Predict the 3D structure of the following.
Amino acid sequence: MKKILITSGCSFTFEDWNWQGHLSRNINVPLVNSGMASQGNGLISRKLIYSLNQNLKIYKPEEIIVGVMWSGPERHEFYKHDFRDSLYWGWKNPETMSDSNVKNPTEVVTGLSNWYIVNQHWTNKETVNFYENFQNTFSSMVYTLEHIIRTQLFLEKHNIKYFMSTYMDIFKHDYIMKHEEVKYLYEMIDFSKFLPIKGCHEWVKDNYRYSGGFNDPDEKGLVGIHPTSFGHEKFTDEVIIPFLNKS
């Protein structure tokens, strides 16, 4: 019998009505979630491992179940030690996010807000400088695969049961996955622990397009990427629960 569910992810694993909230209620165990909108796979991994390290002081490994939903490889973070306490969005990009959604800089260790998030489509000067000088498609995938491998090794070392998925299909481009710097890392991942789908977004869109939140494009031709609570509930009931029962 599991006694706690520990999860991590981005905006797909953030609100109580996302999949992790539905799963916690479905299997009737309390939830510890470190998901947050806009954060990338480095923070998803680090926050999860820190949370597990703390909870292993309370729970036995067999009492824990873990769920991770990986985000876009192009999302990054860097460590800076001299942020002021309680600094929310000191380098905010007002076109994309609001203070209510994301704490930036954010924390891995409780009380230490030293990690600054950068996203490729943000326009503030620090982010633009980062992507112009330190990021490319292949390096981003290398980092993401390393984050996944590190997390799997930690979970397996402690014999903790877990499952993983992706918010969208982040492995779909063959020219990236077959690159020599990427391929050997990709082959190291244990995909038997991944849900048998391309990504949460694709599954909900394919199976519950309108009720799941994917309406026709608006006047600007835009369609949101986030499922509704109904979409997350169906994803939990029809994908996650059967996978857990089978495995």
The radius of gyration is 18 Å. The longest strand covers residues 64-70.
